[in-house]
Amino acid sequence: MSINPDALEKHLTTRSYVEGYTPSQADVHVYKLTTAPTPSTYPHTARWYSHITSYCAEFDTLPGTSTAGQAFVQAAAASGTSPASAAEAEEEEEIDLFGEDDEVDAEAERIKAERVAAYNVKKAGKPKAAAKSVVTLEVKPWDDETDMQALEESVRSIEMEGLVWGASKLVAIGYGIKKLQITLVVEDELVSLDDLQEKLVEFEDYIQSSDIAAMQKL
């Protein structure tokens, strides 16, 4: 079924889209039945056609169904006019269909503003992922008689929001002394490594010092 170009032009004189305030499957349905209009003859249809063309890659993901588009095509074919109310049709007859350049520019700006607003809403709905780092921490005991199991339990007993302890191992450093090498993941905005190291040295019965051996952003 072909689209009635005059009906489409009249329909789009006071609307940005076939249905609603954002591109939808109704626009996709009508678009596929429409050939590129001549701007001098159908300025509003040309504006709409160009705008919907920019969404070609997103046709499958646009919201809604083609039902409204099908209804529009059928009504336009049957009556030769837009399925708008009689009062709307009378008002539309008084509008200069050729328009002025400044009207076209204003409409383009309005459409642009709508798209920016829709993008901002979509962007705001996506939570920003927290920045995280993987840290390798080395904890040194006082001597070879230090209880390394108790030392590790002390280290892991520290709880901070945004801190997750990972795997660990003992690494020999000489003279029978071993240090604890432990991995942790931290949320950068929530965990201060300086504060963490200060908490570690509070276990003065086991811990002599600690060092950041490696750090990598996730």
Automatic annotation (TrEMBL):
SUPFAM superfamilies: eEF-1beta-like, GST C-terminal domain-like
Annotated Elongation factor 1 beta central acidic region eukaryote domain residues: 97-123
Location of the Translation elongation factor EF1B beta/delta subunit guanine nucleotide exchange domain: 132-218
Keyword Protein biosynthesis found: yes
GO cellular component terms listed in the entry, alphabetical order: cytosol; eukaryotic translation elongation factor 1 complex
Keyword Secreted included in the entry's annotation: no
Keywords (A to Z) from UniProt: Elongation factor, Protein biosynthesis
One GO MF term: translation elongation factor activity
Entries under PANTHER family matching the protein: EF-HAND AND COILED-COIL DOMAIN-CONTAINING FAMILY MEMBER, ELONGATION FACTOR 1-BETA
Family label: Belongs to the EF-1-beta/EF-1-delta family.
UniProt protein name: Elongation factor 1-beta
Species for this entry: Paxillus rubicundulus Ve08.2h10
Lineage: Eukaryota, Fungi, Dikarya, Basidiomycota, Agaricomycotina
